[in-house]
Amino acid sequence: MDKIIVRGGKALAGNVKVSGAKNAVLPIIAASILAEEGTCVISDVPALDDVRTICDLLKSMGISLTYDHEVLTIHASELTSVEASYELVRKMRASFLVMGPLLARKGQARVALPGGCAIGTRPIDQHLKGFEAMGAKIEIGQGFIEAKADGRLKGAKIYLDIASVGATENIMMAAALAEGTTVIENAAEEPEIVDLANFLNRMGAKIRGAGTGSIRIEGVEKLKGCTHCVIPDRIEAGTFMVAAAITGGDVFVEGAICDHLKSVTAKLREMGVEVDEQENGIRVRRTGPLKAVDLKTLPYPGFPTDMQSQMMALLLVSEGTSIVTETVFENRFMHVEEFRRMNANIKIEGRSAIVEGGSKLTGSKVAATDLRAGAALVLAGLVSEGETEVTALHHIDRGYVNFTEKLLALGADVERVGPEEKKREAVVPDTIKVSFSPNFA
Ligand SMILES: CC(=O)N[C@H]1[C@@H](OP(=O)(O)OP(=O)(O)OC[C@H]2O[C@@H](n3ccc(=O)[nH]c3=O)[C@H](O)[C@@H]2O)O[C@H](CO)[C@@H](O)[C@@H]1O
Ligand SMILES: C=C(OP(=O)(O)O)C(=O)O
């Protein structure tokens, strides 16, 4: 079993380059299924386990893919199967995003039920409601969801009860090939939705309003391959912003898009951290003490749930009491128990965690309970006394490219050890560009 070993006490300094966004690239790869002709060439594709999983899923459907220097080439015309297996959907819930494209292109799809995960039950009722409104018949049985359309899907007006990111994406992809116009109201507004809409429009779709609560999609008859560059990962960027702040460091997060990180920037500034928004990235510096602040997770442009645990690590070393309220996922406080092993003083009251700052964190053996929790434990380790060992790294590998190598290059005392590490073939070049051989072929 691999582990990350962190020895606390080093202030991070230097330049770190942000990789392409996991949550943008996954729906984009799913959307490539819609291309009946031509090739999709997607650049800045991060070498993540989740990317491998969705590529394996497309391969299992007869689609061929190649990956070289962060460029993924997809030939989706060869689509032969409309099924997504339990093994692949179980590994990663975003696999469910193939349902909309399959249904739109082939008129049918059979996708394993995604189920819940550590952070919540995560139902898919809004996705299904959208497909049904477009005329699909949905059946659930034997652990699968089967959807069938009689001919093309029909454009519809769909109001989402929750501004779900995944439902907005799945419906948008399905509607791209539907007959007539679809309007999604109370749509999610995340930057990843905009990136997906840009990709679809390059394929020939007619989508307007992505990034607002109302998206209008005029269905077209055919979509074809295109080229696209994925947006930088705002959550990875935010994680390194916190790494700079927690260690009292000075880090330039290269490639971070300031607009995508406004809520994180605002909270860091409230805490007394210097954040300098530049054209090609964000510089984060901290010289003084940190003030406690309250925060509440919300859909974009609110504070992202995917930054909640990293921010909690930072609040642990601030002066005073902070209240962190999680409104997006009902069970996203699993990291609290792990932080407590490091001497953190946190109380949970319903959907809020009362974080007492100022305790001296001590290194300990802890386990990642989800992707962001794993990153947050490493961040806490950077300022803990002694050695912290973080296990269950498969969570971190889902969403961070070369996490330890990037921290190491910023001066952290961190190493990854174990049998998996040997297989990863990671190289750490001067510039910390990706350096991974995922071998998708
Ligand atoms: C691959 C990807 O992009 N993952 C992101 C995406 O997940 P994901 O797309 O799964 O998140 P959603 O926006 O759908 O979920 C938000 C809330 O809506 C609920 N819900 C969702 C769909 C539905 O049909 N019914 C329903 O009740 C969920 O249980 C959750 O409580 O957005 C989340 C919220 O920003 C992020 O934390 C995830 O990192
Ligand atoms: C919750 C996350 O991802 P997913 O939706 O893929 O589980 C995340 O990226 O923090």
Automatic annotation (TrEMBL):
The active site is at C117. UDP-N-acetyl-alpha-D-glucosamine binds at R93, R122, P123, I124, D125, Q126, D306, V328. Gene3D superfamilies: Enolpyruvate transferase domain. It is found in: Cytoplasm. The modification 2-(S-cysteinyl)pyruvic acid O-phosphothioketal is found at C117. Its main location: cytoplasm. Residues 6-407 form the Enolpyruvate transferase domain. Pathway: Cell wall biogenesis; peptidoglycan biosynthesis. GO terms for cellular component: cytoplasm. It catalyses: phosphoenolpyruvate + UDP-N-acetyl-alpha-D-glucosamine = UDP-N-acetyl-3-O-(1-carboxyvinyl)-alpha-D-glucosamine + phosphate. One of its GO terms (molecular function) is UDP-N-acetylglucosamine 1-carboxyvinyltransferase activity. GO terms for biological process: cell division; cell wall organization; peptidoglycan biosynthetic process; regulation of cell shape; UDP-N-acetylgalactosamine biosynthetic process. It comes from the Bacteria. NCBIfam families: murA, PRK09369.1, PRK12830.1. Belongs to the EPSP synthase family. MurA subfamily. Cell wall formation. Adds enolpyruvyl to UDP-N-acetylglucosamine. This is UDP-N-acetylglucosamine 1-carboxyvinyltransferase. It comes from Brevibacillus agri. The gene is murA.
